[in-house]
Sequence to fold (774 residues):
Amino acid sequence: MSKILHFLLLILALSFATALHAGTHPAKPPLRIGLTPVFLDDQAAFLNKWRDFLSHHLNRPIAFVQRGSYREIVDMLHEGKLDFAWICGAPYVRNKKFLRLVAVPFYHGKPLYHSYLIVPSTDRNTRSIWDLRGKVFAFSDPDSNSGHLYPEYLLAKQGTQPSIFFAKFFYTWSHRKVVEAVASGLAQGGAVDGYVWDTLSRTHPELTSRTRIVAESPPFGHTPIVAGRSASQQDIAALQRVLFSMVHDEEGGYLLDRLNLDGFVYGNEHLYDSIADMNHFVEKQRLNASQGH
Amino acid sequence: MHLKDISLGYKIPLRVTVLVIVTASILASVLVYRSIGDLRKNMVANAGSIARVIADTLVEPMLHDDVWRAFEIINTPFHIPEDQAKAQGAEYILVLDASNKVFVSTQPEKFPMLSDPITVEPDFSSLLNPLPELNTQAPAIIETHPSNSFYLATAIQSDGVRLGTLIMSYSKKPFEQRFYTLARTAVLITLLVLAVLLPLGVYWGKRMAAPLLQLSDTMSKITPNLPEPDQIELVESKDEIGQLTKSFKAMLGELKEKEHLQQQVITSDRLAALGRLAAGIAHEINNPLGGMLNAISTFKRHGEQDPITLKTLSILERGLLQIKETVAALLVEAKAQTRHFDLNDVADICTLVQPDIEKKHVNFTREIDIIEAQPISSTLVRQVIINLLLNAFHATQQHGQVHLHIYRDSLHLFIDVYNNGSHIPQDKLSYLFEPFTSLSEGGSGLGLWVIYQIVQQLGGLITVQSEPDKTQFTVQLPLEK
Fold:
């Protein structure tokens, strides 16, 4: 309920703001940027500021578009309904055909992040995912790398899969909500974007303190900002220029601080090779499993 | 001490107090009971509609096996501010799947997913057996007595198929808290009302009891001596107590009169007895006395008479004569028919008492309201008037006042003698007419006795009223036909 309401309000706010900006930039149609919960995208006031910042520096209206899942955003990119989107490494490697890498977040001096395996802080015994057999597990989004692909890959390597290994699993469709599900005890374990968890521990320590990090994945290429079919080369270059220069700007610095990032940098598609390998392995395993049945 | 022995002065205020306390307590209890009942009804109705909405909203997440959506939905009521949630909201919400295992709950640590809720909360066995009806609007309510909660169970259904059950648990604590708050307020208000009503009740009770107490107090005083009417302080009113008071006063008056009459009867009986005794003795003395005086007279006339014998005989004779006088005074006898009393007798009397008037310079006034002769013995009436006047002159001071009033009605002659001298003390009044009751130095104590005897023999009455500076004798004598 609240999610839908939240959404409607946001869309209303966005369209209203868009109309205003259309007044100031009558010539250009708005640039449509899709957002996913790879960062804390549930802060409407912050998003407004960032949007205004980008709009100001790109000298054209910006529309942020949020949807319930990664898949919807990727579909919109594919259909040309979005020009750009900030998505996860896993959907990027799966849809490389029509996606172009625009920028990668720079986090703790690297364009990398980790996946965390978390359990409720009351659980003092769990040492790895293997202690969670027969428990309830929370994934963020089926298309998330850190919140789904990596733990699934771990299980696949041992020849099992979530539906067998866990008594039950469910998706919260957001990293933040994985933390909430684990903190509340609804799930006895969860996979979460390490960057989101770290950021939450800064802004909501009372929430993250109710969870405990059991294991950290190897580093992966950070969640990329990509361009869809409709984005022109000029648009890409303009957006890159603005994103990369955020660190040199006072307002941009403030926004980066709120994002808990050092900045945005050029990305190399090979950053995501490890994700592509995992994806490949898991897909093969799934195929085997379904053929085996 | 038994309750019925307590004075009405305490009993009536006490009863009023008990009545006030009982009334206030009953009213307070009823109000508290009603408020709690209403509160519960409201809460159940409120919870029922919330349960219906939540159950309907849960259909889709349950069909999609979307645990997180379901979790967010059931947590919605818990996002309202903390204190409000505690006061009215559910303790926890539990969603069971079709096989009665936990699908999701707001307290996942207490009710882990897929667990059997009955192992956690045995109360649910009665709640889930039978399962709530699919097509009812009102949820099933289960209240288990040892526990501090009651539960609402609502079916989650889609197209007539049971998807699961929604259970909402409500704590009884808000009721208890509310009950205590209400009870405290009720007690406070009751005490306040009592503080106002009790003094009023006690005051009214006392006022109601006061005339009864006064009556009872007065009744206890009628023995041994009847109180004087002016000593009785009883408030008269028209209610029952007032009538009782009136009757009591009338009774007291009658008793007083009776006592007075009795006193008079006793006095006149005693005087009559004394009169008979005196007459008897006088007759017995008179016979030998006459003989002795005759013997002395005879002896004086005859025989040898030496001076010593003569002197002795004279002494004897004088003594015997004194006895004769005294006896004669005691023995008052109405003489045979004499002439009627008229104004000449009055003039004679005035002449006779003149020396006494002058001796004391008494202001003697007369009021004679008769003209012709009255058919009554003049000798006896003269004797009565002279004796009364002499007593009056004797009692009065120098330059005092004495008044004589003679008048009549159709049957009686009245003689009033008034003086402003020293009055007769109360204790002497009852013995006033007995012989040898002297009121002053030098009196024989026979004057009033003689008057009384004469009046008695004539069939009349004599009364006396004596107050300081005012003493009046009234004699009433019947006239002959």
Summary: Chain B has three domains: 3-180, 240-330, 340-478. Residues 365 and 403 of chain B are 5 Å apart (CA to CA).
